[in-house]
Amino acid sequence: MANSSEIRPRVLIVGGGFAGIQAAMHLAGEPVEVTLVDRRNHHTFQPLLYQVALAALSPGDIAQPIRALFRKEPNIDVLMDEVVAIDTAAKSVGLKSSAHLSYDYLILATGATHSYFGHDEWAASAPGLKTIEDAIEIRRRVLLAFELAERQKLETGSHPALNFVVVGGGPTGVELAGAISDISRLYMQRDFRHIDPSKAHVIVVEGSPRLLAAYPEDLSRKAAEELARIGVEVRNNAHVTDIQPGFVVANGERIESVVTLWAAGVQASPLGKMLGAEMDKRGSIFVDEHLNPQGHPEIFVCGDLAHAVENGKQIPGVAQPAMQMGTHAAKEILADLAKKPRTKFHYFDKGDMATIGRHSAVANVVWPFHAHLSGFPAWMAWLLVHIYFLIGFRNRALVLLQWTWMYFGLSGGPRLITGSQKLPGWPELTGSGRAANGAPLDVNSPGAVEGPLD
Q: What is the CATH number of the domain that holds 320?
């Protein structure tokens, strides 16, 4: 730490995601006092959250305690707390614990959360995927659907159709759909006696004319073809107007769904409102070419929380630019301390990629060469990139080992169900072959999956 006679600038970083961690790493060992605040004690590698949600990986494989990352850096403090107020005039923030922290520089990198476009009541029926907690809840629902179907088939001779609906055809939606198809077709088929998990039906509901709208058209088409190959149904130009337990309404049609997942929209962290700066409709803060909100050169906004524009286009809110923004913010602070001029932020776009089930992906490669990859070559590129960017040797080794076991041994990951054993919309049995509403459950009823008991 600093000597008592030495006054060092105080840098407060809010958020332990990609941007916050990168900023802290670049300030480690520098002549500043850093405090990193996050309401969770761990950093999550969000691009692999869907693999936790579909039981391919365990939460600990993609998460790392923030405190452990900086245990050897004496100029970095880590606090598990939540910012509830920002006083830009006094240069201080208020925490949920009632403590107050002052700062000379403030880096805001609190990311984004789900946006249900004004229908927050849909959240209970269609969870999104942003945190470890979200992933565990999705895993619970997906696995529980198969368990309840097995139990109901044994008791009554039938069960509701195993329809899984994913709302949103961006990278998260495509990856969730492919992973659900994989787990039902490849990894669970031999685990059940009375149902056939491979008959599960996955439906992607996308409001735009094509999947992966931000990707080149040829990759979008390849993604649709790969999903069709593994049995995933894609409905484009389908606008969701209602989500209830057990069904989704899109373009006026009711789609039965045992599990509905939300991957259609995001909104910035509510922290932006505390700053009092100009925001866009998603709640992201408009920043200048140095990542500062207007009139506040001591404040840097990074990641999903920043509305940054380059070459007339908004920089996407994904991991790659977030990491670069965190690094840039740290370098700007160090430039100030060295009395050097600041530099403009430039987003170095290396490309985008998304997996589509086992051994398949699409990749729009920009660096080190321009190429559109699909199928197995894209999947290999995706695997190497994600292993490289995982934080910590232990995490890299565990994930690589688990993937090797799964993809070559056809053995699934940790399929553990925790929490409630109730599923929204699933008919509750009374023990008499009838649902809780008294309706008989007939093996020949619509939506039932037929077949003799073993």
A: 3.50.50.60
Residue 231 forms part of a structural domain: yes
pTM of the model: 0.89
Confidence of residue 347 (pLDDT cuts 50, 70, 90): very high
Q: Residue 180: name the closest of 126, 141, 123, 127 by CA.
A: 141
Question: How many domains, in total, are found in the chain?
Answer: 2
How far apart CA 283 and CA 375 sit, in angstroms, is 36
pLDDT digits (tens, 9 = 90+) for 249-284: 999 999 999 999 999 988 988 888 899 899 999 999
Phi, psi of 277 (to 5 degrees): -95, 170
Nearest residue to 411 (alpha-carbon basis) of 188, 104, 255: 188
- Is 175 among the residues known to form the active site? yes
Catalytic one of 30, 137, 175, 206: 175
CA–CA dist 68, 323 (Å, integer): 19
| Amino acid identity at 103 | Y
In this structure, are 291 and 327 located in the same domain?
yes
3-class SS of residue 205:
strand
Domain carrying residue 136: 120-264+352-409
